[in-house]
Amino acid sequence: MGAITDNLDLWGEAIVGTLVLFFGGGLIALVLGFIVGAMRVSPVPIARAVGGIYVNWIRNTPLTLVMFFFAFCLPILLQQRVSPIVLATAALGIYTATYVAETLRSGVNTVPVGQAEAARALGLTFGQVMSLVVLPQATRSVIPPMMSVFIALLKNTTVAAGFSVLNLGSVRTWLSERGENQLVVLLWVMVVFVILVLLLAWLQRTLEVKWRIAR
Q1: Residue 177 CB coordination number (10 Å)
Q2: In whole angstroms, what is the distance from residue 208 CA to residue 215 CA?
Q3: Contact 119, 128 (CB under 8 A)
Q4: Which residues cross the membrane (predicted)?
Q5: How big, in percent rounded to 5, are the helix, strand and coil portions of the chain?
Q6: pTM of the prediction?
Q7: How far, CA to CA in Å, does 126 sit from each of 100, 118, 140, 169, 207?
Q8: How many CB atoms lie within 10 A of CB 201?
Q9: pLDDT digits (tens, 9 = 90+) for 50-72
C-alpha cells in the first residue's frame, strides 16, 4: 500500500488525467460518431461517401500515429502551443468516433426498413426519421457493443502516456523516479483499471435493464 499512500498526489493526478481523457474523448466520440453514423446511412451519396472515407481512413490508422499527428504536427500547422492533454483528448475522440459510428450503423441496420419507409411516407424528413423512429430503437440494441467501445477507449488512454500526458499509463515512470517498485505500481494500475471497467460493466447492465423495461 506504500506505493499508493506515499504518493497520493501523483496517483490523484494520474487518475484525473485518465478520467479527463476518457470523458472528454468519449464526449467527442459520441457527438462526432452520431454525425458520421448518420452520414453512413444517409440517402445522400456524397454524405455516405464522406462518412465512409472518414471511417476507413481513421479506423485503419494506428492510434499511436493519430496521437503523434495531434501531438507534434497539429501544433505546427496551428502555429501555436496547445496543451498535450487537449490534443490527446481530441485524438482519442476522433479515433473512437469511427467505432461509435460503425456500432451505431449496425444498430440502425437492425431496425426494419419498413418502419423508416412508413415514416417517410408520413412526410417526416430524414432527420426526423432518424431521431424519432430509428435511433431510439437502434440505441437499445447497441448498448453492449457501444460499451465495449468505451471500455476500449478507457484502455486506449494509456497511449497518451507516450506524449507527455500524466495518466495511469505513465504513473509508473513518475513513481520509479521516487524509488517505487515498478512491478508493484503496475499491479496497482491494473487494479484501478479493473475497478473502472467493472463500473462501466455495471452501467451497461443498468442501461440494458432500463431499456428492457421501457419496451
Answers
A1: 8
A2: 11
A3: yes
A4: 12-37, 57-78, 85-101, 150-171, 183-203
A5: 85, 0, 15
A6: 0.86
A7: 20, 12, 20, 43, 27
A8: 12
A9: 999 999 999 999 999 999 999 88
